[in-house]
Amino acid sequence: MKRIEYFSIINLIIVIGIIARLIIIFFFAEAYYNRPNIYVDGDTQAWAISFQNLVQTGSFTVNPDHEYGYFGRMPGYSFFLGFFWLILGKWESVYPVIAYIQIFLDVVSIWLIYRIAIGIFNNKSVALTSSFLYALYPFVIVWNPVVYSESASVFLMLLSLFFLLKNPTKDYFLAGIFLGIGILFRPQLMFLVPIFALTIIAIKRKFFSTSLIYFTIALIISYGIWPIRNLINHNKIVLTQDLRGIKNWNVDVISFMQYTFSVKSDWEPQFTSIIKNTPTQWPSEAYVSKEDSLLLEKAVFLSKHCGSGFSQWNGYWQDTIAVENSCTKEISDIFQILRNHQKKLNPVNYYLSVPFDNLSKAIFKNSLYKKDTSVRKFASILFLYRTVLFLLGLLGIFLMARKKNYYYIMLLSFVVLLYVTLCWGGSPQMRNIEIRYFLHADILLLFSAAFFINWLYEKVLQKIRII
């Protein structure tokens, strides 16, 4: 009887999840994204064109004219899109199909969450709570219709975790295969590699086992083809991606971004002021010396007038500038000098103040969100909900540790690695705080949040019974 009851509840949760996703795509997605085409966003074309170039030119590249174009996007999501492009022939036809496939995969993920939670907690109530939190988790739902790799990569992460917790040796091979493919969709899943390996060691209670070997071989087969290709075909060691080959992410823009993130936790309004050729104001931390102040003014002036990367952005104040007619490298060199001076002359701001601002922005996004429209006000409530679940997840991890559920180490390790790397890191695209970059860690925190909610519920029930 209990089995039928739990089975019925998980089916009901899945139906609720389906309804929520359809309501979003049909009634709210356009308003949320503030554009009529809900499928296409800024990076969509880069994945699409990379595969198209592979078919038409024989090279997987986002930009055949640039040596780093071959690494502009990792191949996982491009091949996912490309499969349907080969069938349908037009990208305009592919994008809506991808949206509904991602919705389907995300619905399957609700069931995967349930099964994974059973493996972690051996408690069906916690598993149902976990799946319910995921079924209505807004920050995964809103990415379903968008042709970005977030939604599909979440499915791959959960699928790999599902097989990891099944235990038979052959399932560790599948865990490695799907995790490797997931990395080719979203590089931050790479943090799960050592965590999964240590989990296998803990489960098997020995450092070397057939299971770990199977997992490693599978990972090399799936993910390893990417760095091996980069080394053999292009003589470059690129483990994830390199944006320099994308026209609007040329070295001038990347160096500007990295410098700005050495001073403050956001690149606005400075970036828009360059694009629009309006006065550019910097916080006092940017002016560490008279020489640096003059260098900064020069870098900004050059960025506005002869930066090829900046000129590729929508709304640039004058015509697009060809690389050969630009001062892109000079801009990049100046911003790199200024960034190094920030590290040396303003270390407290660089290593502590800015990263902690980043962390605050990553966790408490709600406090920084504009509330000028009803949609934005609703979005701010959703961000507050996300923050509450994040904190409940941390409390749940603490409770798991007290209850000696050692899977808390896996959850905590991924969250810490991802948040610290993105908030403190110095590589391109790190310190660039977008909530979608944290999506995978936030979803794993739903397990511990559900554990805490279930524990709290049982405590309240016990008090009611006593009374």
What's the helix and strand layout?
Elements lengths: L1 H32 L10 H14 L17 H14 L2 H31 L2 H12 L2 H4 L8 H15 L4 H17 L6 H13 L5 H13 L2 H10 L16 H13 L6 H7 L13 H17 L1 H4 L16 H18 L1 H17 L10 H29 L4 H18 L14 H28 L1
Helix pairs in contact: 1-4, 1-5, 2-3, 3-4, 3-8, 4-5, 4-7, 5-20, 7-8, 8-10, 9-10, 9-19, 12-16, 14-16, 16-17, 17-19, 18-19, 18-20, 19-20
Polypeptide structure, described:
- The chain is mainly α.
- It has helices at residues 2-33, 44-57, 75-88, 91-121, 124-135, 138-141, 150-164, 169-185, 192-204, 210-222, 225-234, 251-263, 270-276, 290-306, 308-311, 328-345, 347-363, 374-402, 407-424, 439-466.
- Among the domains are: 247-345, no CATH class; 348-467, no CATH class.
- It is 70% helix and 0% strand.
- The mean pLDDT is 92.
Quick check: average pLDDT? 92
The ordered H/E elements are HHHHHHHHHHHHHHHHHHHH
The computed structural class is: mainly alpha
Summarize the main sheet.
none
Radius of gyration: 24 Å
Q: Would you count the extended β strands for me?
A: 0
What is the end-to-end distance? 30 Å
Number of helices in the DSSP assignment: 20
Shape: globular
Low-confidence stretches: none
Helix content: 55-70%
The proportion of strand residues reads: under 5%
Structural descriptors:
20 helices, 0% strand, mainly alpha, 467 residues
In short:
By secondary structure, this protein is an all-alpha fold. Among the domains are: 99 residues, no CATH class; 120 residues, no CATH class. Helices cover 70% and strands 0% of the residues.
